[in-house]
């Protein structure tokens, strides 16, 4: 028989669920949250501009769960997630898209990873597997360097795999720009400057790719369009904003600070030279070449 003390010791995780006109995929996502082992969950559900029919559908799926519902006035996943983040009171916070599947041990594993980071802002994330047309494909994260220098070029902290602790939440919310497009990238940049990032090679999420994905579409043309439509989501903007808000101690200690400042210079020529010089020191993938090109061409 389970004692009351053992029940009380089960950690509660705030799960932020952001939706906009959710499709049938959300049923599997919510079921996978409800099926998490070893933790209790409180679901913070934020919806932007869905039909009442869609919202009623999600309410039916959440029936029996501990959840609260919010109407989000501003479009975009970042605005949704940051609003929900501001409402949480739990020690651990996870971020849920509306169309993935979490494996049963995801939250418990991540809580265990963050247990020893109570005194500092902490973030943990994992590998994921791709779910394409019902078939699972292995997807291994190539970026495991969590220094700020590395993260400004390539975000390896995939949003649906992330969990942060309460000090991480407080740091992120303490100075939040209004124009952030990619919430997961911003959170990773902030935690890299003020706390600790922990990576698990285990695949804890099935990340679904489909035609409605905002970022995950494996199509070069769509990526270019996404970058061009959201100039303030470019990494140079997020980099310079993170440094201006959180990077004072980092700047004084980092010998590469001059190079980083050159990479975010208003001058395209200086950014181009700095990007080429930095590129010689690392392996550059196609995605990163695209990001660097757009960074140099069109820094807000």
TrEMBL record:
InterPro entries: Glyco_trans_2-like (IPR001173), Nucleotide-diphossugar_trans (IPR029044). Pfam families: Glycos_transf_2. Residues 15-116 form the Glycosyltransferase 2-like domain. This is Unannotated protein.
């Amino acid at each position: 028989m389970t004692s009351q003390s053992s029940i009380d010791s089960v950690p509660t995780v705030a799960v932020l669920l952001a939706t906009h006109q959710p499709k049938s995929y959300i049923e599997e996502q919510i079921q996978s949250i409800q099926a998490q082992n070893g933790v209790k969950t409180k679901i913070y559900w934020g919806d932007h501009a869905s039909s009442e029919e869609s919202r009623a559908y999600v309410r039916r799926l959440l029936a029996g769960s501990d959840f609260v519902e919010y109407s989000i006035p501003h479009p975009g996943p970042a605005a949704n997630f940051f609003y929900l983040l501001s409402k949480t009171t739990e020690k651990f916070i996870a971020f849920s898209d509306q169309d993935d599947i979490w494996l049963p041990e995801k939250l418990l594993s991540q809580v265990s990873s963050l247990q020893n980071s109570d005194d500092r802002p902490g973030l943990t994330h994992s590998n994921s597997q791709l779910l394409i047309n019902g078939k699972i494909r292995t997807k291994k994260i190539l970026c495991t360097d969590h220094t700020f220098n590395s993260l400004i070029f390539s975000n390896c902290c995939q949003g649906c795999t992330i969990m942060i602790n309460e000090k991480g939440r407080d740091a992120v919310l303490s100075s939040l720009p209004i124009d952030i497009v990619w919430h997961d990238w911003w959170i990773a940049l902030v935690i890299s400057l003020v706390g600790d990032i922990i990576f698990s090679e285990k695949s804890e999420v099935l990340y679904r790719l489909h035609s409605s994905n905002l970022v995950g579409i494996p199509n070069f043309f769509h990526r270019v369009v996404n970058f061009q439509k959201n100039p303030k989501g470019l990494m140079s903007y997020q980099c310079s904003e993170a440094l201006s808000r959180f990077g004072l101690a980092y700047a004084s200690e980092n010998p590469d600070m001059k190079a980083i400042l050159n990479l975010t210079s208003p001058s395209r020529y200086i950014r181009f030279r700095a990007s080429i010089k930095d590129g010689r020191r690392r392996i550059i993938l196609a995605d990163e070449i695209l990001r660097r090109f757009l960074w140099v061409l069109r820094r807000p």
